[in-house]
Amino acid sequence: MKKVVFLLGLILGGFLNRGYSQTLADTFQNFIPKSAAPDETTKRQISAQLAYLGEIHPDLIYHYFEFLNVQLAQPGSSPAQMAYRRFNTIKHHYEWRRQIWAKKQIEYLHKQNSPHEVIELAKRHLEKLYAAFTPYEAGTHSNFSAKTDSLNYLAIQYYQRNQRIDYVPERDYLSQRRVIEAKFRVSFSKTLANLSAIPQLSHHELIRKFQRYWHLYERPTGANWDSTFASTFLLAVEKHYYSLRDIPNDLVKPPRLSMVGGFYQNQTHRFRGRIPIVELNHLDLPFNKPTDFSQNLLSLQFRLPLRHYLTAFSYLKIQLAFLDGGTQQRFMFNNTLFTYRIVKDTTTEVTTTYTESATFTKGEVNIKLQKSYVGKLSVPFIVVNKHVALEVGVLFGKNTIAHRIQHNYHYRLVETKRFPNNTSTTTVLKDGESGNRVQNQTLTQWFASPSLSGVLQLPYRLTLEISLFEKYKTLMAGFTLF
Fold first, then answer.
1. Which of 22, 30, 276, 295 could make an S-S bridge to 284, C-beta 3.0–4.6 Å?
2. What is the C-alpha separation between 291 and 37, in angstroms, rounded?
3. What is this structure's pTM?
């Protein structure tokens, strides 16, 4: 049994529609052959077929159950094979009708006076309705026998899938179906007239719903029939959201290039170094000092579109920056004493200890962050609207740091010998002043850091950006070149 239904899934090419396909098997439970006794897996497979077929055309649900009854009653038999060929022909017929309708709507689209970018976006929604099979030849297979009451009843049940409707033989289901379909059309017309009230996040669901109900606009339904409504609807929806979201990837314009200048950049840099005590063998002065720098910034930002709409992860921003004019930092280390001891056993009885010490009577370090070369890759993580976005990314680059060290220290080397009788002698081997000394050095530092940026798009192509990194804070303003 499971193999049969799984085979049907492969034949029909159905997909699982998460919006409602999990419940369609329950909704149509009375039409599933009792002999099938479907378990949960089989029910999900049947639900997927019903969802898939309903989107092609609701009439296919009736023909699906006709086929399913024969297939499950006589699997592998000649009648079952004939039922499959008949159903496949009917399915291709409706797919063919949907494709012909979509092509006509695309023709209407190209006659509209709208931006090419918007037309292309609306066109893609219609192209998704094209059948993925060899084009069907209508031939003589345009009318297929069916019990119209049952066919229309099943279509109504598909429309009202959230509630189970009892079948009443004497009821006029054709008229009831027309009333329900008319309400759907009225709903779409009201939506078209009031697009500004539709939440921005509902855009894709609105398009998806309209694609499911394409058949409502396939054939004339009355005096007010508009054969171009579908193309008008899709075009209006895309045009509305195009204006709302300021599409970065508009299919025509090249990626955007911006020039950005930084008002203020603060870098927290931990300056590490050593001052050697040249008169001694082992002692030097290490220092590890956090310092803050501010610089002027000039950069180019290149925004590469990844999606049609300005949404999360819809573009990749590549930024190359040059920073110069860093402020100078200074710190002192006067009256600092450092010692170093080494013990040597010269004999088995005498222990000799050498003690090196240095006392800085003057110490000054001047540090200047001269130049920085920075790259940044970022993508939008949260998009509030076309003006405000939050971006995440990574910053990497190179700093050139110059420092000047001025110092004066007193150095001393002492030898201490200890004897077995607990006596000792002390001898001063070196004792003196270093004199004023100056040391100049340029260091290169590579770095990388995660980034978080708030971006505000202002009128007249102006941009304001505030960025926070692990060790950096930046305030930038810029102008979009094109």
1. 276
2. 75
3. 0.52
Give the Cβ contact number of residue 343 at 10 Å.
11
Listed in order, strand segments (DSSP E) in 306-350 are 315-324, 328-332, 336-345
pLDDT tens track for 460-472:
777 888 888 776 7
Domain boundaries of the chain, sorted by first residue? 2-245, 256-480
Asked if residue 12 has pLDDT above 60, the reply is: no
Average pLDDT over residues 314-318: 87
Q: Across-strand partners of 452?
A: 392, 468
The confidence score (pLDDT) of residue 269 equals: 67
Q: Which residues contact 38 (CB under 8 A, 6 or more apart)?
A: 1, 5, 25, 32, 46
Q: Please determine, for residue 406, whether its predicted confidence score (pLDDT) is greater than 50.
A: yes
- Under the phi-then-psi rule, with left for phi > 0, alpha for psi from -120 to 50, and beta for the rest, what region is 211? alpha
SS3 content of the chain, % helix, strand, coil (to 5): 35, 35, 25
pLDDT digits (tens, 9 = 90+) for 354-401: 888 888 888 888 887 778 898 999 999 888 777 788 999 998 988 888
Contact indicator for 32, 38 with CB cutoff of 8 Å: yes
Q: Is 184 left (phi over 0), alpha (psi -120 to 50) or beta?
A: alpha
Name the nearest CA neighbour of 235 among 128, 55, 108, 129.
108
Rounded Cα distance, 419 and 431, in Å: 25
Q: How far is CA 129 from the centre of its chain?
A: 26
